[in-house]
Design goal:
The protein has 401 residues and is an alpha+beta fold. The chain has 13 helices and 8 strands. A hairpin with a 2-residue loop joins strand 3 and strand 4. Helix 1 crosses helix 4.
C-alpha cells in the first residue's frame, strides 16, 4: 500500500471539496433546524454524482463494484478503485455536512450493500436505485445475528415479516435492503439481505425519528407485514451453506465509508478551531520545542495525530477491499478508531472555543452532535473491538462473546 493519494483521484476530490464548501456548508444549519425537510439542493448534485459514476470504469459504478470484489484486475497488485474513490470523496463531502451526505440520492448505505454482495444481474438492475439499509431492530442492534425479521419462501417470492428501526433515508430512498432470516432455527447462517422496493405492499414507514444530530437525514422505522418480494431480490447466494459471512461482507465495504465520514467532520472541527484560536492570538502551529507552545496548540497537535492515524487505517481498509483482500479486521479497526476520534475531537473543539463552540454562531456544536452517530451505526465501538479481538486471537463468535 502506498500512502500517497493517486493523482487520478484529484478531480473527484476537488469536486467534492467544491460541493462541501459551496453547497453543503451554506445550507448546513438550515436543514439542521428544518428536520424532516428534504434538501432540494441535493437533486442537482445527485445528477453530477451519477455522471461521475458513469465514467467510473468498466461499465460505470456496477463495473467498478465488480472489479473491486474480484481483485485488482490488472495484474499490478495495486488497484485503487471504487472503495478508495468513495472514501476519499466522502471525507471531503462530510467536511461540509454529514447529514446532507447521507441524504444524497442513489448514494445510500444500501447501495454499498448491493455493491458488496449482489450478482451481475442484480448489479445491473439495482445500479441506479437509491437504497437504504435496514438492519437494526428493537431487539437486535450491534448483534446482527439476533435479527428476528423473517423471510419465508412462498413460490416465486419471499414473504417478509418484522420491524426495522433507525433506517437512514428509509422514507426517501427508492428501495430498502432488508436483513432477514430464512430460518431462525439455523441461526446466523440463514440471515440474508433482500431488496424491497418502495411501494411494495406490506412495507409501511411507521414514523420518522427526531434526533440529536444528522438532522438533515431522515431516520425511519419500517414495518413489514406479509411483504412479498420476488426471489430474485435476495442479494447474492440464496444458499445457507455460505452462511452469515456472505451478509457480513456488506460491513467490510460500509465500515470504512462511515470512518471516512468521521474523518471529514473531525477535520472540519479542527480547522475551524485553529481559525478561531488564531483570531484570539494562538497563531503558532508547530515549534521546535513543543513544550513551549500554549496548551491549546499542544492539544490540537495531539488531536491531529489521532485523526491522521484514523485516516491511514481507513485508507488501508479501502485499499484492501479494492485489491480483493479480506479486510474485516481492518474495516473494524478503521471504524472503531475514526468513530471514537471524531467524537473526541469535535467535543474537545467545542470546549477549546468556549462560547463560540457552544453557540449557534459557529457549526462546532452541530459537528459535535453529528459525530456521535458515527461511533454507533454500522456497529458500535464495543462490537468493533470484539470483532478485532476475534480476528487477532483466531476465535469464533461462539468462543469469544
Amino acid at each position: 500500500m502506498y500512502l500517497e493519494i493517486p493523482r487520478k483521484f484529484g478531480p473527484i476530490i476537488h469536486q467534492a471539496q467544491q460541493v462541501a464548501r459551496e453547497v453543503f456548508r451554506p445550507i448546513s444549519r438550515k436543514y439542521d433546524r428544518a428536520e424532516h425537510t428534504y434538501p432540494k439542493e441535493l437533486d442537482m448534485f445527485a445528477h453530477v454524482v451519477d455522471g461521475m459514476n458513469a465514467g467510473a470504469g468498466e461499465h460505470g459504478a456496477a463495473g467498478a463494484a465488480k472489479l473491486s470484489r474480484s481483485g485488482n484486475g490488472n495484474g499490478s497488485g495495486n488497484r485503487n478503485g471504487t472503495n478508495m474513490n468513495t472514501v476519499l470523496s466522502l471525507t471531503e463531502v462530510c467536511w461540509g455536512d454529514v447529514g446532507l451526505a447521507l441524504s444524497i440520492p442513489r448514494q445510500g448505505l444500501g447501495n454499498s450493500a448491493i455493491a458488496a454482495v449482489a450478482n451481475e444481474e442484480q448489479l445491473a438492475r439495482f445500479g441506479d436505485t437509491w437504497a437504504a439499509m435496514a438492519i437494526t431492530e428493537p431487539s437486535a442492534g450491534s448483534d446482527s445475528a439476533a435479527i428476528r425479521t423473517t423471510a419465508t419462501e412462498d413460490g416465486d417470492h419471499y414473504v417478509i415479516n418484522g420491524e426495522k428501526i433507525f433506517v437512514t433515508a428509509g422514507d426517501r430512498a427508492d428501495a430498502v435492503v432488508v436483513w432477514a432470516s430464512l430460518d431462525r432455527s439455523l441461526g446466523r447462517a440463514a440471515i440474508k439481505s433482500f431488496v424491497v422496493e418502495k411501494g411494495t405492499p406490506g412495507m409501511t414507514v411507521e414514523r420518522l425519528e427526531k434526533k440529536l444530530g444528522i438532522r438533515a437525514s431522515d431516520t425511519a422505522t419500517i414495518r413489514f407485514e406479509n411483504c412479498r418480494v420476488p426471489k430474485e431480490n435476495l442479494l447474492g447466494d440464496p444458499s445457507v451453506d455460505k452462511g452469515f459471512a456472505g451478509a457480513m461482507q456488506t460491513f467490510d465495504n460500509t465500515r470504512p465509508v462511515v470512518a471516512a465520514m468521521a474523518i471529514g467532520v473531525a477535520r472540519a472541527a479542527l480547522e475551524k478551531t485553529r481559525e478561531l484560536l488564531a483570531e484570539g492570538g494562538h497563531g503558532s502551529r508547530y515549534a521546535a520545542q513543543p513544550w513551549t507552545l500554549p496548551a491549546a496548540d499542544r492539544e490540537l497537535q495531539l488531536l491531529e495525530a489521532e485523526l491522521e492515524a484514523a485516516r491511514l487505517l481507513t485508507l488501508r481498509a479501502a485499499w484492501m477491499a479494492d485489491n480483493g483482500q479480506p479486510n474485516s479486521k481492518e474495516a473494524s479497526m478503521a471504524k472503531a478508531k475514526a468513530g471514537r476520534v471524531a467524537n473526541t475531537i469535535t467535543l474537545r473543539c467545542v470546549e477549546l472555543c468556549g462560547s463560540l463552540g457552544y453557540g449557534e454562531t459557529e457549526l462546532l456544536e452541530k459537528w459535535a452532535r453529528d459525530s456521535k452517530i458515527l461511533d454507533i451505526f454500522e456497529g458500535t465501538q464495543q462490537i468493533q473491538l470484539l470483532i478485532i479481538a476475534r480476528r487477532l486471537l483466531g476465535k469464533s463468535s461462539a468462543e469469544l462473546k
